[in-house]
Amino acid sequence: MTDTADLSEFGLFDPAIQQCPHAYYAKMQQDAPVYPAEIPGGTLHLVTRYDDVTEIVRDVATFSNRFDTAGANFHPELAARMKELYEAEGGYDKIGTMLTVDPPDHTRFRRLVTKAFTPKVIADLEPTIREITRGLVADVIAAMEKDGKVEFVETFAVPLPVTVIAKALNVPDDRLADFKRWSDASIAGIGTNITIEERLEAEREVIQFQKYFAEQLELRRENPQGDILTNLLNARIDADEVGDDGEEIDDRPLTMPEMLSIIQQLLVAGNETTTKALTEMMRLLGENPTEWDRLREDPSRAKAVFEETLRLSTPTQGMFRVVKADADVAGTSLCPGDRAVVMYAAANRDPNVFPDPDTFSPDRDNLTSHLAFGKGVHFCLGAALSRLEGKVAAEELARGLASFRLCDSNEYRYHPSFMLRGLVSLDVEVTPA
Ligand code: HEM
Question: Is pLDDT at 189 greater than 70 in this prediction?
């Protein structure tokens, strides 16, 4: 693979390269492990080797997650009009939480949210996830009967995570359509070039979302319900609780704008990523029919199949870091203010860690060593939830379908983004079990 890529042809925003960037990442790992990608307004240093990525994400004192203050999204007219809109319509301030803050702020948020999003809360969702998934497998079969093929992304991979998180947040069925609209609006501005008017339209939906959840949270002050929202409201730092390095943690409970920003971050970080992973799992099973047959014979392989999908088809290909202090990464000097991208998708195919890295192999020894969920303090908060969704999806697809094949008409076009990788559509033909 490495022989074919010429780095002088690489462009981070080149849609043709975004369709299949892996040969370039492999070449970078070999020849330029910290690759300076030129973009309008500066340079992004792409870090591609597994060990370097791991070192960076562990060193939060040097590499900051406050990338939204690095000028990436700054647009004065939009900022002014958003402020106007939020004031006029009574929206709540958006607060940087978890993903976009550093310790010690991060420690407070993460500790409080972890108390709401406990392993038990996630495990208890399994019957709900299974019921939703079975309904979607039935939709897949119905679409096949009606149209002679199924578009898997819209029929299965989009509705599964958004319906699951809605149920987890106790959104009643009659508000599900609103919730889906709010969820789309929350991601409208990310990674795409939409107009200011379109962006403001999306923000109006976000304000509706804020008002709905603010009301639900207030209701739970009087009537606790033992759900994630009540847990968020009541989450407290314990008197004797200290940070990972023994430091004191700011023990203020979450404010309303903080809780609303956290709920929004769950949608933004969780829905599209899981959709993309589920779609890639289907593609990989279609391309590796022996693995599909083995899964059908032994559904306990579901977990491994999803895990290997995450490694090979890492949806969150890269995440920004802003350099805070002089650093040396693989012989490249980085200075305060420099912007780096930890390329999880590249690290997950590092041949020094994953032998035969381009092969889909759910039996590999170090299956869970991949970095698809990141590592360190920002390790994905939703990892357990999306792993559960992926496992149940693989089990229920294998139970409900006798066979399936990828349609010859598929073009396998990926959304044009270097950060989030996923297919625009995937047509399949299925036979019910
Ligand atoms: C296959 C699905 C998913 C993938 C590939 C994924 C990937 C990631 C990655 C790579 C990070 C680390 C970011 C960094 O290094 O800066 C992350 C963080 C995060 N993820 Fe996920 N994620 C997935 C699903 C979810 C779900 C379902 C949720 C919530 C319900 C979620 C919520 C979050 C949050 C809140 C963070 C920030 C954590 C922090 O900074 O402390 N993710 N995710």
Answer: no
Topology classification of domain 2-432: Cytochrome p450 (1.10.630)
Q: Considering only CA atoms, which of 223, 289, 212 is closest in space to residue 256?
A: 212
Q: Which atom of ligand 1 is nearest to the CA of 344?
A: 10
Q: Which amino acid would we find at residue 247?
A: E
Separation of alpha carbons 311 and 355, rounded Å: 12
Q: Which two tokens stand for residue 313?
A: 């088809």
The domain spans of the chain are 2-432
What is the enclosing helix (H) or strand (E) of 45?
strand 42-47
329 strand-pairing partners: 332
Q: What is the pLDDT of residue 72?
A: 42
Q: How many residues does the chain have?
A: 433
Q: How far apart, in whole angstroms, are the C-alpha atoms of residue 359 and residue 357?
A: 6
- 305 CA distance to ligand 1 centroid (A)? 20
**Which residue's alpha carbon is at the smallest distance from atom 25 of ligand 1?**
270
- Ligand 1: atom nearest CA of 385 is 27
- Which among 58, 370, 373, 380 is the best mutation to test ligand 1's pocket, defined by most ligand atoms within 8 Å of the CB? 380
Amino acid at 48: T
Ligand 1 nearest atom to the CA of residue 101, by list position: 40
170 phi-psi bin (left φ>0, alpha ψ -120 to 50, beta other): left
Which run of H or E residues covers position 401? Answer: strand 401-406
pTM (predicted TM-score): 0.95
| Pocket of ligand 1 from Cβ distances under 6 Å | 57, 65, 98-99, 110, 165, 265-266, 269-270, 273-274, 277, 315-316, 319, 344, 372-374, 378, 380-382, 385-386
β-pairing verdict for 319-323 and 327-329 = unpaired
| pLDDT tens digits for range 195-226 | 889 889 999 999 999 999 999 999 999 999 98
Element containing residue 328 per DSSP (H, E): strand 327-329
271 Cα to the center of ligand 1, angstroms: 10
